[in-house]
Amino acid sequence: MEKEELISLYFEGKLSEAQEITFQQLMETDADFAEEVRYQENVKKAITLNERKQLKATLQSFETEKKTTGSFTKWLAAASIALVMISTYWYFNQTPDHNSLYAAYYQAYPNVIAPTVRSETKNDLQSQAFYAYDNGDYKKSAALFSEIHASQNEEYAVFYAALSLMEDNKHEEAIKLFDSFKSNKESRFSIYAEWYEALCYLKLNNKPAAIKLLKQIANEKNPQQETAQRLLKELN
Amino acid sequence: MSATNSIIDLLKKNDEKTIRTFYNDHKNKFVLFAKRYNINEFDSIDVYQDAFIALIENVKRGKTDDLKSSLSTYLFGIGKFMIFQKFKKNGQLHIADDVASIEIEEDLYSEDDVDLQVRLLQNGLDKLGEQCKKVLQLFYYEEKKLDEIQEQLGYTSKDVLKSQKSRCLKQLKELIKA
What we know:
The complex is a heterodimer. Chain A is 75% helix and 0% strand. Chain A is mainly α.
């Protein structure tokens, strides 16, 4: 029997007992034969790993698709709830209720740093932190972002740690972190840090502190200016 | 044909809708299950995906054709086994659960343990022609017998298929030499 045939039968799992013995003998005595078997074992391994990788990517794409649609829907829902609450407030409420104002104006800040795309290479601290954040596991994301800040001194980490704390109802702790942006007006987060800090004060019923911050935001040109002006009006 | 059988057939054909539905239908239950062992969602989804991949592999190799249990029970069996393996390795797990209810072969294809030739082959495979890819994929990955491949791909004789297969293997060998 040809050697090639023998190897093929080996991979098909169809070697007879006698063929099995020949096969083993050749493996020990015929270096070329052994080399060819090893080569084909490796082909099998390579194809298997490629197939798995491809399927893994497909499954991961199911997760990211859901995530994007998920957070978009959440965003829309938050926006429409905010609208309803604001209009309800206009019609029915004469005295400002800080909690409902907070709820009306508060929207989770999106993950703009590391869109959750999971791949083998990105299984690092940052991805884990944002994964937790995107999934609403704020206790975990707060801890992870603090860790990133401690080890890498990244300013985004402070910002998202504060947001996580806020989501976790730890507004006092969040304020401390937002405060750290005061010395760093250049930061792309500083205006949002002020805005969220104002909302923290609102939540804590500290109206003067909230107004002070909102006035700062309302008086300069920035993406939150109009919103801050609107909220100020409602507070006055 | 039973429901399980038709799902198996669709999975064999790589039907994306079936894969997606089957994947989504069991994910949350698995994540909940994994929580009992203090595994966070991030890790449990990762394990779930690997279990799912192993399931598809076994489906394609025909190992689930005579399955006595449902396919989802089978998937959970693999997943539990993987959790068990993973945490046994880390020395963190103390369960004497019903993990062994499904027999799972030891996986010989760990990513961590791959030599240079395999890496070269992984790239070389992409450069092969479609027909070669198909033949090798069916023979080595799906572990189909030559007779089945001959029928599936419509070869006039087994010998034609055999020489095609050895041509492909030679071609691949040349590709990784370059």
